[in-house]
Amino acid sequence: MTTTKLKPDWAGDDLLSRVVNRAIQTPALYALMKRQARQVMIKTAEKNGVPWRQTCIDLDTPKMRQRLEALTNPALVYPDYYQVPFHAYSEGNLCWQAAFEAAPATYAMALRIWPQEAISWQAAQARLRQSFLAVLDAHGPAQVNDMLDLGCSVGISTLSLHRHYAPRNSPAARTVGLDLSPYMLAVAQAQDAQGEIAQWVHAAAEATGFADGSFDVVTMQFVAHELPRTATQAIFAEALRVLRPGGALAIVDNNPQSPVIQALPPVLFTLMKSTEPWSDDYYTFDLEAALRAAGFESSVTVPSDPRHRTLVARKGE
Ligand SMILES: C[S@@+](CC[C@H](N)C(=O)[O-])C[C@H]1O[C@@H](n2cnc3c(N)ncnc32)[C@H](O)[C@@H]1O
What we know:
Blueprint: H1 15-24, H2 27-47, H3 52-59, H4 62-71, H5 96-111, H6 121-139, E1 146-150, H7 156-169, E2 174-179, H8 182-191, E3 199-202, E4 215-221, H9 229-242, E5 243-254, H10 259-262, H11 266-275, H12 279-283, H13 287-294, E6 298-302, E7 308-314
Parallel strand pairs: 1-2, 1-4, 2-3, 4-5
Antiparallel strand pairs: 5-7, 6-7
Helix pairs in contact: 2-5, 2-11, 3-5, 4-8, 5-6, 5-8
The structure holds S-adenosylmethionine.
């Protein structure tokens, strides 16, 4: 599932990449691309049974707005890289629309992984999470009680992580979801109807506020491609600090070496680059080297599905 090419030609400094970047920097063209991206995403998702617009209607309640207030950490200072338009939302992740659409967008994303197979969005989502967790099981610590999901968004990754380990370790399993967007956290808390998650924390993954050695597993699920490399490096250092000896940082994200990603049609990679400002930096960044530089003792990388790779890095005993 990988090629010898380290990254797609449409990322980095190649000619194709520079032409695409120029188009994105043209305001009228960029506005058109953003509108198009939204329409294509919503139409495709609903055609495949993902209740996109209904989900947004259902989530928009007065109770949700109260959750926002209760979850917001007023002392938090947002990093500059986070306060930019993202995913075609002018306020990036810091708005209700981004939070209400996050779950349907996540379900639609999983469906794109296995286009040849007639599977439901629920089955695709379960398979995506399972493929990640299988790598973590194989290369992570044997005993997992305390887990931290960095960039948890609306909690889909947090709940799947928790439900994977909780039945084995119950009642000891304790899982925390952390995100920079209080809007995402409000939706996450509402989705966590049974209160399975110990805490939803509004903080930067670079400075979680947890004590040294608090967790057995830290995850970054589909977060790194949204970050400049300096942020990823800072998060790796923080993850190492809060992990116990022998603990693991598990990352799943787009695989630059995936033939599917490398062969994305121009309209798709242009849309992707126009709505994810740190794409180029992600696709040209050596995550394994960064993990070593941060002080992780070992790491493995597995192409866990046709589009994504899972990395599991261990802290020394
Ligand atoms: C694509 S979403 C993650 C999806 C989720 N983990 C999943 O697998 O379904 C990326 C999330 O990372 C959050 N994020 C980005 N930078 C962050 C940072 N420095 N610290 C904490 N959260 C961050 C965003 O607010 C967003 O909710």
